[in-house]
């Protein structure tokens, strides 16, 4: 009887060890599945964050290119405005120069008119004197 009890005890113990081994394997598989599920769940978030980061990088590069192009275009506009401003200043200088020349020409015209009138008056008096002298000479003869 003792031998049969020891035998039963050993059988039950072997059976329990076998069950524990099965449960240990199931627990390991379950923990592996849980770990894999957690990693997959985290990877989804990480993958989404990675895709968002890539999209942000692309948009940042596009924004940088756009800002660079805008800066170049603004520089060109500023250059055009500067050139236009210089041209307007030159036109103002030309207009001022033209007014100055016009004023000088009017002074010259007035001077010439006065000189012409004076010479005509002088010639008129000389002609009158000559005519008087000629008339007197004709009268004396």
Automatic annotation (TrEMBL):
Q: Which GO terms describe its biological process?
A: endosomal transport
State the superkingdom.
Eukaryota
Naming one, the record's GO cellular component terms include: BLOC-1 complex
What Pfam families is this protein classified in? GCN5L1
Q: Which parts of this chain are annotated as the region Disordered? A: 1-23
- List, alphabetically, the InterPro entries matched: BLOC1S1
The family line of this record is: Belongs to the BLOC1S1 family.
> What is the designated name of this protein?
Biogenesis of lysosome-related organelles complex 1 subunit 1
Q: What organism is listed for this UniProt entry?
A: Drosophila lebanonensis
Q: Which gene encodes it?
A: LOC115634762
